[in-house]
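Title: Request for sanity check on Rieske domain-containing protein prediction

Description:
We are preparing a figure and want to confirm that the structure record we downloaded matches what your pipeline produces today. Could someone re-run it with the sequence below and paste the raw structure tokens into this thread? We only need the token string, no images.
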Amino acid sequence: MNSIFRRLSKRSIHPLYKNNPNIHKIFLHRSLSSINSNKILTSSSQTSSHSKEPASNFKLKLLLLTLGLAPFLTKSFSPAPECQDPSQNNQNPSENSSKTPHPSIPRTEQIYESLGKSTPNFYVSSTFDLHNMIQEEKLTMKKELEEASEEEIRRLGSMSDKQIESMKGVGEKENELVKKGGLMYRNITVLEKGMLKNNMKVQISICDPDDPDSYQPMNKVLIFNRDGKYYCTGSYCGYDFTDLNDGIFIGNKIICPTCSSAYNIENGLADIGPTLRNITSFPIQVRQKDVNLIVPDHIPAFSMRETLEREDIDPRVYIIIGDSEAALSAVITLRYSFTGRIIVLPTSSSGAFENKEIFPRKFGPLNKAEVFLVEPDLFQKAKVDVISASILKIDHDNMTVHFSNDEKVEFDGILFAGSATKDVPSKFSNVYTISDYETHATVHNEVIKAKNVCVFGGTFEAYQQAISIRNYLNMIKLEDVKITLFERDTNEFIRTVGPEVGNRIINEFKKHKISVLRNIDVTHTEGDHKLKAIYFKHKGFQKEYFIAPDVCINEGELKEVDHKYHNTIFFDKPKWRPTVDDYGAFKIDRNFSIMIGFVQRGMLACGQNALHRSFLGNGTVRTPNTGYNVQAGYIAALLMLHKTIKFEHLPLQRMTIGDKELYYYGERMNHFDDAIIEGDLNSDKFICYYLRNDIVCGILTFGYVNLHLYLMEAMKRLMMPCGQEIRLQKDCYKSIVDKVMKNSSEFICTKQFELAKKSQIMMVRGSDVERYSKFRTQLKSNVQEKRKKEAEERQMQKEMQDRKMKEEIDKRKIEFVQKKKDEIIKKMKE
């Protein structure tokens, strides 16, 4: 096993990031107990134990271990490329270059090309239907393997002689092999039927301890027992690759502890964002007292996305303006139940379709799976048209869009889902705003050479950026670098968590050698092309100070939107003209309509370029939180399809301070009346409840791993006690967790029901009735035209078959005549 960890630790730094001799990777080898129930985990509650089970030839053993690795995205049953030998990734450069992003997407293709051959090709084009294979083989697999000879085993799969010898005498409870579609599957007995109790989960790692070369750290799965039925899914979150074993299993979903993404344990589908990837699911068979798992030879982390194919019958057209996380979520949601035409207009000058939330949270080198929210060929598979032209005019009354390339498109719905910038560009060369993958790599390369680093901003992202830089520098043995956090503009973080908790977090920052400067006024700066010094003084004092930074990073609030299209929208009635704020963001209602008070859902907006209505009475909300915007894009897409769905979602903010996790669930800048702190504020663990009118409007946990998930579910289901009960009761969180677990059957995934919900078209004006009548007429015409084409194709196929049959008959007649002729000639000669 030591050779395995030595081999896995040889991971190269990404080409865009300069290598530092002190950079090294630390892999934590953690083992878990065999049965893992829903426990409230803290940062210090993890124990380790090593398996000492004796080994045997080619017999699969269950190693209950956890490796803190972030795997690459895999789309089919194939080995994880991050775990492969780096030398194998460069053998076929043509295969790596065959999968490229859509040519119309700006800068995404350039980023992929700049990665070079050293980046593994983790997008695999092979597909396979596991469930159909199981239905075909479950009746014959047992008999074939019991009666298989050496030749039959060779026929089932291309195995080495050593593997064939080890297969002799192996029973069905230990290992069953079958090859289908070029892939090897195994039927493995993982545990006894009564070993896993009801509503509990267990994580196992499936590997062969006798063959280190075949070991894959991604070969981990989660097995669930819900109401006597067993389910199996992958173990990694599709958003930030967190181990889902630390999450909670409640109802029919498993919730990620770091990003709160929820997955359906029955099929692995993502129910709640921010994730846009589905985890894999595998069938389980119960044979007498044993629970058998059917898995491929190498277990993938994520499953392929199943979307509908575009059809010419549906005449509807939906246009999505933007390339943010909300736009991607809307595209994926539409393709689940919509077969018409989808048009996407990228608006970002940089960072198109990238996960910008990862940049302040992880300062070290990133891989493509962490940066990009979805696979680069998503639009090609979903048959989405990408237009790079700009918009000249949007005619709402005629429902048409005029592009700069003289193209005119009639639409049934349009969604504004663009992104926004945080700061204006600076004139200094050493002042950066991390907006995309390349600037993140540039800042990384500058920081590892700097002595003084300054972070400007008072947002959650600014605090997370400062602490992530410190964590990374400590890992690469650069503890002497000074980090200063300047709070400027609005102090969003302190106003959100409160002064008491804010001072406690600032003290925690001081322990990690981060200086936080609050209530300061920058008097002037020094430098021409490079910022050499910043002069400032505290408010209320006259003494002036200065600091000479080597690198400065801006992490402010959302400001200007990428493109201001509100000036291109024309209405027949001026009163329906949308309203925007000073930065160009649309003001929308609860139905995401930019025409507030109008029930027609033809023009919607969501994401970073929209001001959402607050659920807690805080006015409007505009946040860069990916989970919030992904959920908003999902609901907006359903509303475009005329499905009545309510948007009820609160963002989750996460901050990692050393080895402790801070989670805040609620809206930023929350105007609370009182804050109740449960536990010692100066300890390593405490909880804070934020109240308004004696009702909990926000929660914060510090030092816990998954407690916030129970509190979140309690807030969603209105199970949270009032402020007076929290004050009188000691350790109130325990009663909340018990209440959630008792009602766990109510916490079920709802996405599949929302997607199957029927549309309800609302016709208010006479033009709506005319448009709907035109839609029905065109739909009938398209159906008739398609039936006519299908009939013509069937007729052509029939004529072709008749022609082939006639040719075959004529050929046989000629052969028969020629044969008889030869026989007659032969007899005449005789």
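Thanks, this matches our download. The domain at 317-420+560-640 is CATH 3.50.50.60 (FAD/NAD(P)-binding domain).
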